[in-house]
């Protein structure tokens, strides 16, 4: 029998599993990334990618604290696992012209308060440093220095699992389909027909946490489509743009909102891509396993290709992409905008769910809080526990 089982081998689950494996016999249950998303019939994840922005500054104080808590662990985790996942190239934030002065003042104030290195830059300074980037006329921005940058989410999960395995973490590459409670233990049954007994369980199955019989009451979450584009970047251009930081750009556009752009990164197919994502007018909420699966397999992400391509060409006019493609993902939102972390029922089941589009950088901290609450019923941070209270469907 296990002391702890984590359901979900994603960003939050792998972190929680590493922390729990310091406390007792632990397994993490979750499938590997499917080789072909278009034909895959099981669950998917929000981390099948090579780049996620990481930064300490956020207008939301709770997310900023979670990020700092997590970023503080990156170096130790990298060293312990021997796996590189963090690229501290800084980050550039470009507000919409209309709110530039208030945004920059607020972010600069936050940076001062938490002692983060930053620079407010006008158009000339920005153009001098990154001559290949363009935004609206008269643009200005705030540059956050390292350790801001990006993480490779696939590598971060590998690092969490490798470090966990050194502590005895067991990995079960299956999908949990039910969770039953009896007096002395909990039983998890998987799609492989296997059963696992454990004293306690943490559900960290992201967008799929409600999809099976894992929780007696469904969590109140909304799962939204997220579209990205990948611009295949010629290797010589990628070399010229090697110093490019990830960018967050509050574009003024009738179709797009809140752009995030990653620098050129090499993908598993050997090619180099610039990745851009944003909210779009075509975004919609998905209600269940079937709808989420259909979106990942064959959702109509190409309807936004032209608008997103035009936006990226506007930001990087010198980009002569070798190819363009869209990609599909989902974002899991909670009612209060922060992850749900807490115990449910009789206290033997916990949840750590709801990245709200910001969970990758902070997944280590979210997993750590979930692990502490499950193992000891202990709230392991100064942030009020109530901020993270799980909310259930009526
Ligand atoms: C396009 C996109 C860009 C993003 N960019 C950023 C960014 O720049 N910075 C940032 O901080 N965040 C970003 N995010 C958010 C971040 O990726 C998510 O918050 C994060 O992946 C959430 O982690 P998770 O562990 O909850 O979910 P996931 O990473 O999706 O992991 C959930 C895991 O649970 C597994 N699972 C599901 N059901 C079961 C089951 N029944 N049994 C076993 N396993 C199961 C899945 O296989 C999956 O591996 C982005 C998200 C998207 C979609």
What does this protein structure show overall?
This protein is α+β, with helices and mostly antiparallel strands and 394 residues long. The protein folds into two domains: 168 residues, 3-Layer(bba) Sandwich (FAD/NAD(P)-binding domain), CATH 3.50.50; 177 residues, D-Amino Acid Oxidase, subunit A, domain 2 (D-Amino Acid Oxidase, Chain A, domain 2). It is built from nine helices and 20 strands. The strands form three sheets. Strands 5, 6, 7, 13, 14, 15, 16, 17 and 18 form a nine-stranded mixed β-sheet that branches. The site of flavin-adenine dinucleotide (FAD) has 37 residues, from helix 1, strand 3, strand 13 and strand 18.
In short, what is this structure?
With 394 residues, the protein is an alpha+beta fold.
Number of strands: 20
Coarse shape? globular
Bound molecules: flavin-adenine dinucleotide
Structural class: alpha+beta
> What name does CATH use for the topology of the largest domain?
D-Amino Acid Oxidase, Chain A, domain 2
| Strand percent estimate | 25-35%
What is the average of the pLDDT values? 97
Provide the domain count: 2
Helix content: 25-40%
CATH class of the largest domain: Alpha Beta
Helix count, per DSSP? 9
CATH homologous superfamily designation of the largest domain: D-Amino Acid Oxidase, subunit A, domain 2
N- to C-terminal distance = 33 Å
Give the CATH architecture of the largest domain. Answer: 2-Layer Sandwich
The unreliable regions are none
The major sheet is characterized as: 9 strands, mixed
SSE pattern: EHEEHEEHEHEEHEEEEEHEEEEHHEEEH
**Rg estimate, integer Å:** 21 Å
